[in-house]
């Protein structure tokens, strides 16, 4: 029975890794396409003048790709030795919370409390990462 579970787990891991690779590839293509089209449109209309909100969706896509890569690394580490590295998990958490903060429009933030809560989460994950790294040395 354990042999079946191990094979099933390995198969599911490969499927998850394949799906993650496909998502990363598609998101990278979309990021490049969006950046080039935004750049062409912006240069044709405004020249090289920087507008703060012009690349908002590109930044969100960038963090999606980064988050997907970290999750893929987590799956690979787990599949090789059945161990979960706490540092990798903390990095994934920091990226996910940062992405959530950047993805939200400034009009969506209903209060200062939600922004302070997100900032507290990022600081807590960063402190946890620092403490784990300090203990490992």
UniProtKB/TrEMBL annotation:
InterPro entries: P_starv_induced_PsiE-like. It is a multi-pass membrane protein. Keywords: Cell membrane, Membrane, Transmembrane, Transmembrane helix. One of its GO terms (cellular component) is plasma membrane. It comes from the Bacteria. The keyword Nucleotide-binding does not apply. The keyword Lipoprotein does not apply. It holds the Pfam family PsiE. Its main location: membrane. It is found in: Cell membrane. The chain crosses the membrane at residues 12-29, 59-79, 86-104, 116-132. This is Uncharacterized protein. The lineage of its organism: Bacteria, Pseudomonadati, Bacteroidota, Chitinophagia, Chitinophagales.
